Amino acid sequence: MKQTLKLMFSFLLMLGTIFGISQTVLAQGTHQLTIVHLEARDIDRPYPQLDIAPKEGTPTEGVLYQLYQLKSTEDGDLLAHWNTLTITELKKQAQQVFEATTDQQGKATFNQLPDGIYYGLAVKAGEKDRNVSAFLVDLSEDKVIYPKIIWSTGELDLLKVGVDGDTKKPLAGVVFELYEKNGMVPIRVKNGVHSQDIDAAKRLETDSSGHIRISGLIPGDYVLKEIKTQSGYQIEQSETAVTIEKSKTVTVTIKNQKIPSPKVPPRGGFIPETGEQQAIILVIIGGILIALALRLLSKHRKNQDKH
Fold first, then answer.
1. How far is it, in rounded angstroms, from Cα 53 to Cα 82?
2. Are 252 and 156 in contact (CB under 8 A)?
3. CATH code for 26-145?
4. What string of DSSP letters covers 271-303?
5. How far apart are CA 233 and CA 245, in angstroms?
């Protein structure tokens, strides 16, 4: 009897243990994460809101993505730290590693992922792909994310010059706006860098050396619009086309001609204009002709008196 009770007790303990484990497994949720890789300029969405898709972009097939499940939720605050690690170091520090490759729609789908925080990145030739921003995602439900594509950017160096005859000098305080070709809204610039911040400036002024320098510009065609120039100068060309190339600085020089000063007559004198000069000459000629006519008339009368 005692032996039977002991066996029953052991069986119940075993059931409890199994039930407890199954409860733990069931409590651990599993989710789906879909990464959509779009080759997009990606300047029209705030970063790092990964769940917001670019307005347009080309799906890319064959991009390998890896997900590293972090061991602690506290690690989720250290994106900069994870960005410094190599793939070998990441694998050593991660709890689990998952990977998937994008299909024709640019989608890499990860199924049955446990709850947790994941560090994700694109991999190229066994190394981190530096053209795709790595990211952190807190996975507590199914999610779709759009990693940010890093584009090689270019710079613009504008020089504004005032021309007065043979004299040239840089003009400060000249106001410009920079538009993408066919764009309706000027781009924003903050601390000399193309920015999406709402407090970034749309109107740009030349500095004391006559320059406006802008970095972080996506390669492509732009239009510089001159809004206001320095007093005493005239805007000769209100719009200037500019083409930005990746990893290059494009230099543009725009000239404004000095407005000629009006002629000032010398004090106490009079300088006639061209039309006035012609009128004066005609009056003088007329006076001479009248004088000659009167003299001839007088001479003719004297001759008549003699006869």
1. 24
2. yes
3. 2.60.40.10
4. ---HHHHHHHHHHHHHHHHHHHHHHHHHHHHHH
5. 31
Q: For residues 230 and 256, is the Cβ–Cβ distance under 8 A?
A: yes
Contact call for residues 97 and 85 (beta carbons, < 8 A):
no
**How far apart are the C-alpha atoms of 124 and 146, rounded to whole Å?**
18
Q: Which residues of 50-83 are buried (b: 16+ CB within 10 A; e: fewer)?
A: beeebeebebbeebbbbbbbbeeeebbeeeeebe
Q: Shortest CA distance to 218 belongs to which of 202, 196, 191?
A: 196
The string of pLDDT tens digits covering residues 18-62 is 444 333 333 357 899 999 999 876 655 555 578 888 877 889 999
In tens, the pLDDT along 103-125 reads 999 999 999 999 999 999 999 99
Q: Pick 277 or 81 by higher pLDDT.
A: 81
Strand, helix or coil at 78? coil
| Matching residue, tokens 């060309």 | 237
Residues 125-160: tens digit of each pLDDT? 999 998 899 999 999 999 999 998 888 889 999 999
**Torsion angles phi and psi, residue 292, rounded to 5:** -65, -40
Task: Delimit the domains of the chain by residue range.
Answer: 26-145, 154-258
Structure tokens at 190: 């903050």
State the fold for domain 154-258.
Answer: Immunoglobulin-like (2.60.40)
Measure CA of the first residue to CA of the last residue in the chain; give whole Å: 188
As a whole number of angstroms, the distance between CA 95 and CA 100 comes to 17
The mean pLDDT value for 77-101 works out to: 91
pLDDT for 195: 86
pTM beyond cutoff 0.85: no
Residue from 133, 137, 146, 53 nearest 98 by CA: 137
* 266 preceded by a cis bond (ω within 30 of 0): no
